[in-house]
Design goal:
The chain is of the alpha/beta class and 280 residues long. The chain has eleven helices and nine strands. Strand 2, helix 5 and strand 3 form a beta-alpha-beta unit. It starts with a helix and ends in a 6-residue tail after the last strand. The structure holds S-adenosylmethionine. S-adenosylmethionine (SAM) binds next to helix 1.
């Protein structure tokens, strides 16, 4: 995705003020199947040291920029870059030493400087040309710097999606069971990144969660476009739209009553990439 008006508006609807991102990551942290949160898992693998300069591209609400700033304290510098100013509101509110910059990853502002680590967490799939975007970001690395990208493996969260389809069907609303081909995913990522970086290491993380009741499943679902798109669709009568939430919760609870806690599978992956010594 680039910064042309239509796609930016769509992006702004999806990410709004960062609250939806925070709501999803909160469910994943609280009910996760892995011992460590995704954030800690990733940050533990970074060569954190005093004086480190990190750029978090497509930083959103600060899922990584904020804990990074806590880990680095006053000794380093964290810069958060995002196309949308509003989504970075939680970063600005945090009071932590993170500089927020509004800009496009495809054409990063010229005066950003160079970084020891450039992190692109769950954002490269938004770029129309992933390789060109990764190349532009690689240009922001200091010689020997590390580029880290995260994304999902496959479509994921099938269980949450099945409940969405069932709820839409129950309300007589159209819902397509089609997954878009992934632009930058766990399987397509390595070949794309190898066009930019000589060394690409791939590590997988089990990002699933187990819901003991319908509440966390709905909390996650309500923060997705799956739920929010029909909710703002004027063609659907308001009383029908208002039934989507209770219908979804009812179906989720019924599933849990019948089969026990619901395991929502979501595999994620991180790519650790090294450039050449020139930082390209
Ligand atoms: C799925 S969110 C990920 C946010 C954060 N990295 C995280 O992991 O929670 C994707 C973010 O990328 C941003 N984004 C999308 N396209 C962008 C672009 N071309 N340049 C900069 N940011 C972009 C969106 O505004 C959004 O905040």
């Amino acid at each position: 995705m680039t910064s042309d008006d239509g796609s930016t508006r769509e992006l702004a609807e999806t990410y709004a003020d960062g609250g939806f991102l925070d709501a999803k990551w909160d469910v994943m942290r609280r009910h996760r199947t892995s011992a460590q949160s995704f954030e800690d898992w990733l940050l533990d693998q970074l060569p954190i040291r005093p004086g480190l300069r990190v750029l978090d591209v497509g930083a959103g609400s600060g899922r990584f920029a904020l804990p990074l700033a806590r880990r680095l304290g006053e000794t380093g510098r964290v810069v958060a870059l995002d196309l949308l100013p509003e989504v970075m509101a939680p970063i600005r509110r945090s009071g932590l030493p993170v500089a927020t910059v509004v800009g496009d990853a495809n054409e990063p502002p010229a005066d950003l400087g160079r970084f020891d680590i450039v992190l692109a967490a769950h954002m490269l799939y938004h770029l129309d040309d992933v390789v060109a975007g990764a190349r532009a970001l690689a240009g922001l690395l200091r010689p020997g710097g590390l580029f880290v990208a995260t994304t999902n493996v496959g479509v994921g969260m099938r269980e949450m999606f099945e409940l969405h389809l069932a709820a839409m069907r129950e309300l007589g609303l159209p819902a397509e069971d089609t997954a878009e081909p992934e632009r930058f995913g766990g399987d397509t990522g390595p070949a794309l990144l190898r066009q930019v970086f000589p060394e690409v290491r791939r590590r997988e993380y089990d990002g699933g969660f187990v819901a003991p009741s319908a509440d966390p499943v709905f909390a996650y679902y309500a923060a997705t476009e799956l739920y929010r798109r029909p909710m703002r669709d004027d063609r659907i009568p308001m009383p029908t739209r208002l039934r989507l939430a209770p219908t979804y919760v009812h179906l989720a609870q019924e599933t849990i009553n019948d089969g026990g806690p619901l395991h929502v599978h979501k595999d994620m992956v991180a790519f650790f990439c090294r450039g050449t010594d020139s930082g390209e």
